[in-house]
């Protein structure tokens, strides 16, 4: 195949280069290269500008000089983002070719597979351990109830069944909340917080709204689930005074904090892991669900110290938050 045909029909960005007394000479680029890297055939093309990490111009130059093939995973700057590519050097008699194959879809599939595997591990853990315990408890007290006809035994069985129902609901929520968002709408943060507050048992607690006008683009149901889980966590582990507001400064986001004892710095990295809980009644999935919902929106959730020493959960990178 002639070089002109190769460049014309190849779907990936391609550079055709040659050698001269002055070194490497870029002779042609194809239409895919022009589109991907926003250049035209008449522009001066710099190899360094197409490479961000994974390989250097000297690596490419060494392969060209030696006539060796090159096949590397690299990241290239495209439209302001670092995008994964497979860079191949194909030697030829009159020079050679550099082929850039976009691997964004492959990387996305791998990440999705990793997330699915993590979900399967969570399911396996719950089924093999967390669900087995209340089942064993229910069986024990049911057998005792049959022998003794004691209402207390039936109450214990009912508690165990409630525990299993909670576990199942949380595991299903964990699986569902990480799915890609289909539709979002602009909602008021304070309204979502108030709706979430109405669903939790907060008889001896109070909710303060530090910002009643801020809005953001979100899936309303998932955002309310996120806030509900943060509220339940604060009510169970924190203090009775809870505040929801927006973050001041350069960062874009909002927070929920309590006035309780807080979370030690060396434990904060683990609180979003499925199954991590300091409560005998908790499933350890509430904050994992929070992180899944935040991820689905493209947000980041972290925990730090609150103004009054309690736990402060911050949801940042909320680019749609207004005003900010």
UniProtKB/TrEMBL annotation:
Catalytic class of the enzyme: transferase
Boundaries of every Histidine kinase domain copy: 126-321
Q: What is its EC number?
A: 2.7.13.3
- Which UniProt key words apply to this protein? Kinase, Phosphoprotein, Transferase, Two-component regulatory system
Q: Does the keyword rRNA processing apply?
A: no
* Xref: CDD domains: HATPase, HisKA
Q: Which reaction does it catalyse?
A: ATP + protein L-histidine = ADP + protein N-phospho-L-histidine
Instruction: List the GO biological process terms.
Output: phosphorelay signal transduction system
- Would you say which domain of life the source belongs to? Archaea
Keyword NAD on entry? no
Write down the species: Halorientalis brevis
Q: What is this protein called?
A: histidine kinase
The protein's matches in InterPro entries, at most eight in alphabetical order, are given as:
HATPase_C_sf, HATPase_dom, His_kinase_dom, HisK_dim/P_dom, HisK_dim/P_sf, Sensor_HK_Regulatory, Sig_transdc_His_kin-like_C
GO MF entries: protein histidine kinase activity
């Amino acid at each position: 195949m002639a070089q002109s045909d190769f460049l014309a029909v190849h779907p990936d960005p391609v550079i055709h280069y040659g050698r001269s007394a002055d070194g490497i000479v870029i002779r042609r680029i194809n239409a895919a290269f022009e589109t991907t890297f926003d250049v035209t055939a008449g522009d001066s093309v710099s190899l360094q500008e197409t490479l961000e990490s994974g390989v250097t111009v000297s690596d490419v130059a060494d392969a060209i000089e030696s006539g060796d093939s090159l096949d590397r995973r690299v990241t290239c700057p495209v439209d302001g983002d670092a995008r994964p590519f497979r860079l191949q050097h194909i030697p030829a008699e009159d020079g050679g070719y550099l082929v850039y194959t976009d691997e964004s879809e492959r990387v996305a599939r791998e990440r999705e597979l990793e997330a699915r595997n993590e979900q399967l591990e969570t399911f396996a853990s719950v089924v093999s351990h967390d669900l087995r315990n209340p089942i064993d408890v229910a069986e024990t007290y049911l057998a005792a109830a049959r022998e003794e006809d004691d209402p207390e035994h039936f109450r214990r069985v009912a508690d165990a069944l409630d525990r299993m129902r909670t576990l199942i609901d949380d595991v299903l929520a964990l699986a569902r909340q990480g799915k890609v968002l289909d539709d979002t709408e602009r909602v008021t943060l304070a309204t979502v917080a108030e709706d979430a507050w109405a669903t939790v048992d907060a008889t001896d607690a109070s909710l303060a709204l530090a910002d009643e006008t801020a809005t953001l683009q979100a899936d309303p149901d998932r955002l309310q689930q996120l806030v509900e889980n943060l509220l339940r966590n604060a009510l169970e582990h924190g203090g009775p005074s809870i505040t929801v507001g927006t973050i001041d400064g350069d960062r874009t986001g909002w927070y929920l904090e309590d006035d309780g004892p807080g979370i030690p710095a060396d434990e904060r990295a683990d609180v979003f892991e499925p199954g991590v809980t300091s409560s005998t009644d908790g499933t350890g999935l509430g904050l994992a669900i929070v992180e899944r919902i935040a991820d689905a929106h493209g947000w980041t959730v972290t925990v730090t110290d609150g103004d009054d020493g309690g736990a402060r959960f911050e949801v940042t990178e909320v680019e749609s938050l207004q005003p900010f």
